[in-house]
């Protein structure tokens, strides 16, 4: 593989200008646009500066200091610099910097191109000494490099026989006439760039200073006007800081492609109107996880040659690998663990139990929800392009198992202190730069200390996995349940092992000081899987019981109580029906709050903080709040919630103030340059952009990286975003944001057609005794057509087992019960009824099943 650090440098000898000072008089007065980011290193961070071969750098005392290995021949054999620097041909630039060195030597400051053919614009040589000096030079650019393109500013330190340390500070490059990205407003007409469903609201947001309505025209792909009207002025929109108009073209329902919306003199990106616009997003969003697999090659057969790569972290040089991984020094463990596999968490090479936990749970819950209240056929075997496809197991479960098995490996083994607990994370001992493919990572790997939060994540997900694999792979189901119960006991014995918030070298800290929510979530999953009274008591005795965790902020890796409630609301148990109704009511009440808020916004998104700011990963929270809206529809069938969930997709796919689709590969202007070490085309053109289906983290008011801080200062909350690979606080990707997108994408694909009205009703009565019950079920045909055969389905709420039934063919799998007609009662006329019944053993309390369906239709 090429030396990627070297490929960044301006080293093509054929393009070198004459060595020595190149200082030109200014061609014109330069604008006051700063072209470098983090030039004063005041944050203590190096990013987005990098070090090439022969150097290692860090910020020391507010200076960027590079240790340089001697014995090189050329200046460019040891260098540091910054990419993505914008230059405009014919424009004047002024470079300023301070520099010093432990030992006096010449260095070069070079402006030019970061990739082959490495053309230079200007190069100046200076001599640096132990005494700090300030340097100022002005030059005119002969080349054009747009912002976030292949322009570069580099310092050459090589060509000396001796080792040295060279420090630079207060680096500034001012000039040009075009402002940096992020400072100008996006194109004003914002639509869902993928498309709209014919039967749902079709709305756009328009930034325009007019206070009176504006004319709008909807045009088809041929440019012909098909609808027109007047906008509705919304006024000043707090999220975008703009005066916003709303355009509603919902009345137009003709299916087609390539529509555009023109408002005044501005035109939107093209979009479709079709019931199929989101069908494939469910698969692209799930494909993300195969790309993130660790410990296995990503094969061209499944992702294409562009994205194929060797396996990472297999203890094959230069990897130190994920076998025999020792603990971080000082945490009190003297063993090693073999922890290959799992998903890389984000744009780095770390694997985190607390982030992997919610991600695996949400992928599994996507499937479990479809089994219980939706349609799981679209999530079956053969639906994803992964190696396990065709093995008879739903592909979504195969993908999730890759992560679940990794989580099990993170458990402290028997005989060790804290046995049964789970290590919080594994990642590199030091941060690595970009780009860096996993198999090229040379860093040693380290296990961080076990934590209560990680242990409860393991308990919850392993318990969930146990019930989903019970009939598919009983041995794996039993293994998962044993690990879950061991983890829960270990967490109870160590309830305050909090992850070190300062353990953030080489990987994110993922600190979480409150674990009440994780205890509730884990107890809920274990109770649903086992029905045991101890877990039931922990659920009902929790302060979070009956939906207390479900709120308008939403859930994420650090706030997981709602996950337990979602499971309890979906999977039948012996809990009182009124308590389950209370959980569902908390979901619908929160969904109502989201809808009320969205109605006030110029660019509707179900997201809020107390001060109106947006936080790191806001798009993940937006998607998870979309999940709440979707569940509210599942439980009530009220159309307003369906509209709200699709409204979330509108925001993520382009109806937002930056006019980006936040999902790579989807829409006319999707994110391309997400923060990722091997989807790094912006830094290395031989590497790919993000594959379709990756969700960017999105707006973040805190601007916690130098690129965002330099380009977006003072941004309104929903506009604190830039599509730049180094802008990690706004443009990173993670498994837990994509799991939220995948859940919502599957739901919207499933609900892209209007559900038929219920065609049946069920009356259920049961008489119980200490160890059993006898039930009568009356099925009524409420449709306009006769049933020519029927199938009844429901699920027991506990460990009931069918003994015998009458007037139907009865069967049971797990808690799921199926009854089909006999020859003499299969025809049921409209308005007519048929009565069936059964006896069952009941070792514990029995509750009325929450949902009945006949012939696939949910009954009233």
TrEMBL record:
It catalyses: Endohydrolysis of (1->4)-beta-D-glucosidic linkages in cellulose, lichenin and cereal beta-D-glucans. SMART domains: CBD_II. GO terms for molecular function: cellulase activity. Residues 753-860 form the CBM2 domain. Its EC number is 3.2.1.4. The keyword Hydrolase applies. Residues 1-30 form the signal peptide. Keywords: Carbohydrate metabolism, Cellulose degradation, Glycosidase, Hydrolase, Polysaccharide degradation, Signal. The keyword Hydrolase applies. CDD domains: E_set_Cellulase_N. The active site is at 675, 723, 732. PROSITE patterns: CBM2, CBM2_A, GH9_2, GH9_3, TAT. It holds the Pfam family Glyco_hydro_9. Belongs to the glycosyl hydrolase 9 (cellulase E) family. PANTHER family: ENDO-1,4-BETA-GLUCANASE. This is Endoglucanase. It comes from Amycolatopsis magusensis.
